[in-house]
What we know:
The protein is α+β, with helices and mostly antiparallel strands. Helices cover 20% and strands 41% of the residues. It is built from three helices and seven strands. The protein has helices at 44-56, 109-113, 121-132, and strands at 4-14, 17-25, 28-32, 35-37, 59-72, 78-89, 101-107. Strands 1, 2, 3, 4, 5, 6 and 7 form a seven-stranded mixed beta sheet that branches. The longest helix is centred in the middle third of the chain and has 13 residues, at 44-56.
Amino acid sequence: MVHAELTVAAIVKRDSHYLMIEELAHGRRVLNQPAGHVEPGETILDAAIRETREESAWRFHPRGFIGMYYWPHADGRTTLRVALAGDVDDHAAGQPLDDGIIATHWLTRDALAARSDLRSALVLQSIDDFESHDLMPLDRVRHMTSRS
């Protein structure tokens, strides 16, 4: 039986730069998009909005579905990641960021590709998919309940 961790990632591009999170993960400083686990009872869209605010202090407005990524890890875990594109506003500069978050950065795709400290291959893959494919409408991301 496969146990998948459901995660979200917010892909935010402003001019030619992407919003990135510098964080500590497994004892390493790495770069990732604002991302994290979907909490019980939370929708995928709400999780992306929450994670972006908690990790970057920006308010995220999802505007399209980029893709879903199935990633089996060597240790037996599996990540199912949903990437959403959107915009940010209302930066709460004085807000404390989540534990483990060091800083936020705005970096180009080429600058990211030249780095060796990306958290995973999902970082560039979701950016490349954002740049090369049309966004799917958000109504393609459905939240089902036991009454649905």
